[in-house]
Amino acid sequence: MRKLYSILIVLIIVGSTKLKAQDHNLSVDASKSFAEIQPTMYGIFFEDINFAADGGLYPELVKNRSFEFELGLMGWEEPNSDRHSFNQNSGKAQLVKYSDSTNNHNYVLVTVNDPEGYELINQGYRGMGIKKGEQYRVSFDAANKGAISAVKFELLDEEDNLVSSTTVPVNSINWKSYETEIIPSETVEKAKLRMTFEGTGDIWMDMISIFPKNTWKGRKNGLRKDLVQLLAAMNPGFLRFPGGCIVEGRTLAQRYQWKKTVGPVEERETLVNRWNEEFSHRLTPDYFQSFGLGFYEYFQLSEDLGAEPLPILSCGIACQFNTGELVPMQDLDPYIQDALDLIEFANGGPETNWGKVRAEMGHPEPFQMKYIGIGNEQWGPEYIKRYKEFEKAIRAKYPKIIIVSGSGPFPDGEYFEYGWEQLKEMGAAIVDEHYYRSPEWFRENANRYDHYDRSGPKVFAGEYAAQSVAIASPENKNNWETALSEAAFMTGLERNADVVTLTSYAPLMAHKEGWQWTPDMIWFDNLQSYGTPNYYVQKLFGTNSGTNLLKITEDGKELIGQEELYASAVTDSNSGELIIKLVNTSSEEKSVKLDVKGTRLGSSGKMMVLQKQDLSAENSFENPTNIQPVEETIKTGSQQLEVSLKPYSLNVLKLKMS
């Protein structure tokens, strides 16, 4: 009996100790701001990876519409034409080069021998997503060289049933643009286009396009509405574009050249996407960039989102994970001139050379660009040498432009240390850091910036995402553990807002059948899209960034993950609110008492909770809101409140201050 009594006493002591360990008494002084939260604190990183542009944000339905892929008829099929025989009885399509075009190199010559037997099929980007009752613009250029009277466009479903059709008369022997519309009678995720012809003979065709009319802001051939709405809901402070490694290219010839992405869409030169065969587990040889989504559209999207545009340009080094090709220093001037011309394109008046190009595209007012990035993940002495030349030229002509430099692809190690040492010595304004690491790394590094030099360069956390398996693994998941770990880490970014001024998750988007890299923040197919748990973490921080940083402490010490509790605190001078972010990464509920000094609180507040008991849980097309924020009302005292934090939860408290 005495032995049993002793065991009970021990259990009671252990139980009470465990309960006590879950209690936290926190304190924040709302009258003492330690730094301003920059409007750019939480932003968006966009890269054309995972079919994020063509086939995604840029919703053209016809793949290889201008016959510019390396295999000119890639994406097109002639089911009734034997291309291996000398005589194609029904007809044939063959590629022809323009004699005087600069960037649009090819068109297709279609020869129709049997109008009842010949057809040309386009499969789209893993099919064509079409919606019942919605309007789609059909357009093409043609020169009728034979006795063809009309071109018929038909949309077919997955079983080749007719969904909609339209017939367009072609009446000119010379090149002419034609346009009509088509309205599907059914919603189909993987439709295809069938083109047939009335009459016989030759017809030249180019820029064959089907585009939804229901785009973002209703713009003609504009962006995919549901995807932009997801971005707008994040309240992003900046938009970094056109990507990371895609800027560099495998070779310098394949680098992203912004000047080839502006002006008339039909004159933008198609380029192979550097991700098309990068990963053996996801080869996509049909991945090219049409640049229908080009630099003008990126600037326009930034403006629509109320986000600062942050373009990244090649520094004259191809991707160092591929060829690492270097432009010789004596040949660097054209690359530097590209940067200077881009600033003129964004900010120059209509009387300037590049400002005139922007104005002619429909935006006479400057975009007021403030930032420009030079290089992506380059490292070593060759990067520093080239960066110095860019910086000298930009500062001389545009001293107010803020230049973003890079510290390489890793958050530590020799490349990282060397880059930081050199850039700090140069007095660089902002250094871009990237980290793709395990969830544990993110939780353990919430204090990463606590001891950074406050007088040195500012930090751009430009690419980060917790990897559930390993970097570049096709098995990575956007599960709740990765999102929760990123939330814990982000409290550390926010607590150091005097050093960290821009942050963005990467990559942004992925097509469910066209992806190369995981994890990704937003997933989509041809009809639908959804935000992952990682998306909702980013959204909660971005829509509750505040304006002024406060210190939040426990027993006089800043809270940076003691006992699996992470926290940050800000005030919002616009809304008059105190905003507290609390992340509980433990499997136990935590009771938090908060003592607020320097202000009085309203009688109630709001608490948004993002939580799931199962760390492996994900959102999906079938259950897109499996993990999403839930809003609660909480009672407060004039200067105190008490809340319970569920296990594995991100909690955002919004408290009115009087």
TrEMBL record:
EC number: 3.2.1.55
InterPro entries given in the database record: Alpha-L-AF_C (IPR010720), ASD1_cat (IPR055235), Galactose-bd-like_sf (IPR008979), GH (IPR017853), Glyco_hydro_b (IPR013780), Glycosyl_Hydrolase_51 (IPR051563)
Catalyzed chemical reaction(s): Hydrolysis of terminal non-reducing alpha-L-arabinofuranoside residues in alpha-L-arabinosides
Transmembrane segments: none
Taxonomic superkingdom: Bacteria
GO molecular function (one): alpha-L-arabinofuranosidase activity
Top EC class, one word: hydrolase
Record bears the keyword Glycoprotein: yes
Annotated family: Belongs to the glycosyl hydrolase 51 family.
The protein's name in its UniProt record: non-reducing end alpha-L-arabinofuranosidase
Taxonomic lineage from the root: Bacteria, Pseudomonadati, Bacteroidota, Flavobacteriia, Flavobacteriales
